[in-house]
User: Fold this.
Amino acid sequence: MTGLRELTEPDAQGRFGPYGGRYVPETVMPALLELEAAYREARSDPAFWSELDYYYRQYAGRPTPLYFAERLTRELGGARIYLKREDLNHTGAHKINNCLGQALLARRMGKRRIIAETGAGQHGVAAATVAARFGMKCTVYMGAEDVRRQEPNVFRMRLLGAEVVPVTTGSATLKDATSEALRAWVTNVEDTYYVIGSVVGPHPYPAMVRDFQAVIGRETIEQIRAAEGRLPDVAIACVGGGSNAMGLFHPLSAYPEVRLVGVEAAGRGLGTGHHAASLGAGEPGVLHGALSYLLQDEHGQVREAYSVSAGLDYPGVGPEHAWFRDTGRAEYVAVTDDEALAAFQLLARTEGIIPALESSHAVAYAARIAPQLPPDAIVVVNLSGRGDKDIYHVMRLLGQAGREGEAAR
Assistant:
């Protein structure tokens, strides 16, 4: 069995097992080394964490509740289901945890401008929010397709003072936005800080973003012990890049009795090729500066991902997830668009909570396994974000399905 430290801490080259590292042009290395040194210093400074904890509590609204979903539990039968309510954070998702940490680090490094990439828009909104709070200029790169799908979040970012740059290359989604943000950072490293939104990218980003998101798992451990007197049997979170999942998994990984389940987007089905299941159907390769599992064609080229959820529409995954997969510490499953849409409606109908489409994938898997578990089993689902941003997208999808059903009748 791999030791806990070897499982969860990168080596000197920033690798989790064989994954991670720094596969970047020479021009980016000085910026990464500067960032690594700054984060190493901040990580060992209690004053840094004390200030971050202040903003978590007084600005973001932490701790978020761990809510017992009584009606959902009754509807499904079987295990008791708890929801970790990251959707109740300021800006509506877990993304604010990481953005607050990186903004404080950018300020500590003397940077006055931040750039970010975004898929569903939640990370872009969180980056624009912290930029406004700390008086920084902000530019957000977003795929043109995601700009279309996530119009309310684009408006929010602009309202907060950020410049939103639509990216039209490739599939015009998160992968292309990330590539464009990396290119922009290369040409502006002197005064610009790049706020990566997930546990992806070159070292030290995967471990650093994880550290800022680990507050989710620490709170969950404390709250479930207070509610049930023990840890959960299963902890479930959706996985695109994987930041909300690693935030939940990392503190729980020290407890082998807790089953960790990451839920990827199966899209239209793994057999169709239209999905975003990097861990379930990908192979190791390099993307955005790190080695991890990613979707590739027969020539080793990065293949376009697909998901109904913009936040999961990414062909790669964080390297620590790849290591968890290979070592067996976590298992990774996939849920289709149809299952996620059904879970979106199920949680709204039973609990009065409209989840993000990303989170709906985790809810869908909980709905799949809960009836098979005994009534005294405990399942925690990380509700990574709220579904306001997805309302118009889902309305179009369900309206189209309804019209097709009427036509068939």
